[in-house]
Design a protein that fits this description.
- The structure is a homodimer of 337-residue chains.
- Chain A has eight helices and 14 strands.
- Chain A has helices at 14-25, 75-87, 129-144, 163-177, 209-221, 256-264, 283-286, 317-333, and strands spanning 4-9, 30-37, 45-48, 51-54, 56-57, 68-71, 91-94, 123-125, 147-156, 228-235, 241-250, 269-271, 292-299, 306-314.
- By secondary structure, chain A is of the alpha/beta class.
- The first copy, chain A, folds into two domains: 4-127 and 320-333, Rossmann fold (3-Layer(aba) Sandwich), CATH 3.40.50; 131-315, Dihydrodipicolinate Reductase, domain 2 (2-Layer Sandwich).
- Chain A is 29% helix and 25% strand.
- Chain A is globular, with a radius of gyration of 20 Å.
- In chain A, helix 1 crosses helix 8, helix 3 (129-144) runs parallel beside helix 5 (209-221) and helix 3 (129-144) crosses helix 8 (317-333).
- In chain A, the strands form three sheets. Chain A has a six-stranded parallel beta sheet with strand order 5-2-1-6-7-8, sandwiched between helices.
- Chains A and B meet through strand 9, helix 4, strand 10, strand 11 and strand 13 of A and strand 9, helix 4, strand 10, strand 11 and strand 13 of B.
- Chains A, B: It catalyses: L-aspartate 4-semialdehyde + phosphate + NADP(+) = 4-phospho-L-aspartate + NADPH + H(+).
- Chains A, B: The active site is at residues 129, 242.
- Chains A, B: Its EC number is 1.2.1.11.
């Protein structure tokens, strides 16, 4: 079996660590494995599948002989190093938002638009976590009846801010319960026992970056430049799974029964929709795995050709690490590396 | 100054206790004050404004000489006792949902439809908490341009389930952090570090009772039988303030600037809308007071004549106790008791 040399750029972060775990779980045929991070982390040892790996400092010269770079670094690092990786002959699967909307960069959810990887020029972008979760949930519905408009409210986990987000929730709850002063570092405000309607900075219309990603990235992934999305993104005191309350308007009616049938057979989706028995997706039940759970499917009683649903998915896994590894798998399957 | 004899029915619950507090804070001109609860609580002593009150068992004979009953009891208790209170000559302001949709029972948010109290036949209903919060926020917008449709996702505090809801969140967080097994009693699932898309039971279409209240009660309070609402109600691990993500469609355009002007001058509303400075309503900042905070006001980029906003309000106060006391104040002002 052919092996591929893999580098993880940003290997010490929450997503980077999960990428390593997912590569192992899914038996990705890796040969050489390079764990790259900032100078600060260089020299640290990581054990993976019984072997010890030493974290190396990521530089422009880190990518010789590498076939695939899984990039879990911030935008400015991806911008600085991804071109060098491409020049060295690697394909970069980039979880940052740096290149997502570039015309020559495919933006891929493997369940939705795997064929787009073929058009890559060296970089393939991994979409935003809430976008991946929503679009995986909606894909079969969109194929059956084109989605023209979405109204979305998100309930996003603290893991979206990485390891520090999780630590901050824990620290704040511990400080509150022991009567100490709450420190705010990672989020704009206290997240313990609170919800914060801000993820990213705001544009002049009043939408946050995270809110605009759903429309901008959704249009590209669904190949529907006319898709209209009004999104409100909210951080909630939950560890890892994002939840989304979604209303879709479709070009023809999808009955709830038809929607459930489509969702029950959709790739990457698990239908959990028996509210009378208190069964619906929740963050707690959907963490640490890869499926997007969908439930609360019902007719929108406020207009025709419109459905309401609720979905949850692990932000670190399908929302980031797993989706990136799945893209690498498509590259392997299609002989594109 | 004329005094009014007041009874609080369900005086030991979260809302009943808050009603007592609010009566004091707002200097309601009470004469006799009767605190009624179940047999179990009868005999307990409560201190209020320097006097001791003994909780009495609520029976059909509890309402002699009472002018106003503030009912914070469950539906079946209100159904059993409110008619007796009315027969004894009292006006019942009922926080349960038992009579809300009855034609001869006004359903009142004093900032929105105070004139409706005049039509009472003994019972005036206090609306559902999320409905009060949304409609107080939307009232001036609805007056300026009729709201035809609303899409709402709620982020509801555990206080909506009373004292037990608050205790359950605390107990679960404490148990989790000390490695104990989590007990689930009040909510359908663990609420700590989770969100639950269920408040109340579900109808055959898949909407929960709480979700349908927004449309059914909204129509009655706004005097708009054609109002269409698609609502998703979600419990979040927050103590007291509900948050709501709301999209409204109006019969003519309301620009965000106009909306902010209307909201800045709206009764019962505080506009907090400076997202660039990280200022927007949040549960933590809006608890233990009576105003509904509104922010994140923006044009709906997905359709015309449509606005998006975010509001928060204390569920126990404006969502229940304060609104009931405000109704009593309208009765006094209009000489209706």
């Amino acid at each position: 079996m052919k092996k591929y040399n893999v580098a993880i750029l940003g290997a010490t972060g929450a997503v980077g660590q999960e990428m390593l775990k997912v590569l192992g779980e899914r038996n990705f045929p890796y040969g050489e494995l390079k764990l790259l991070a900032s100078k600060r982390s260089a020299g640290e040892e990581v054990e993976f599948q019984g072997k010890k790996f030493v974290i190396e400092e990521a530089t422009e010269n880190s990518f010789e002989n590498i076939n695939v770079v899984l990039c879990a670094a911030e935008n400015y690092i991806s911008e600085a190093l991804s071109p060098a990786a491409v020049k060295a002959g690697a394909v970069v699967i980039d979880n940052s938002s740096a290149f997502r909307l570039n015309d020559d960069v495919p933006l891929v959810v493997p369940e939705v638009n795997p064929e787009d990887v073929k058009n890559h020029k060296g970089i393939i972008a991994n979409p935003n976590c809430s976008t991946i979760i929503a679009l995986t949930a909606l894909n079969e519905l969109n194929k059956y009846a084109k989605i023209n408009r979405m109204v979305v409210s998100t309930f996003q986990a603290v893991s979206g801010a990485g390891v520090n987000g999780i630590k901050e929730l824990d620290q704040q709850i511990s400080d509150i319960n022991s009567g100490k002063t709450v420190e705010i570092k990672t989020f704009a405000h206290q997240i313990a026992y609170n919800v914060i309607p801000q993820i990213g900075d705001f544009d002049e219309m009043g939408y946050s970056q995270e809110e605009m990603k759903m429309q901008n990235e959704g249009r590209k992934i669904f190949h529907n430049p006319d898709l209209k999305v009004n999104c409100t993104c909210v951080r909630v005191p939950v560890y890892r799974s994002h939840s989304e309350s979604i209303t879709i308007e479709t070009e023809k009616e999808i009955t709830p029964e038809k929607a459930r049938e489509l969702l029950a057979n959709a790739d990457g989706v698990k239908l959990v929709d028996d509210p009378a028995s208190k069964k619906y997706p929740m963050p707690l039940d959907t963490s640490n795995q890869d499926l997007i759970y969908v439930g609360r499917v019902r007719k929108d009683i406020s207009q025709d050709n419109s459905l309401v649903l609720w979905c949850c998915g692990d932000q670190v896994r399908k929302g980031a690490a797993t989706n990136a590894v799945q893209i690498a798998e498509v590259l392997v399957k299609e002989n594109l590396i």
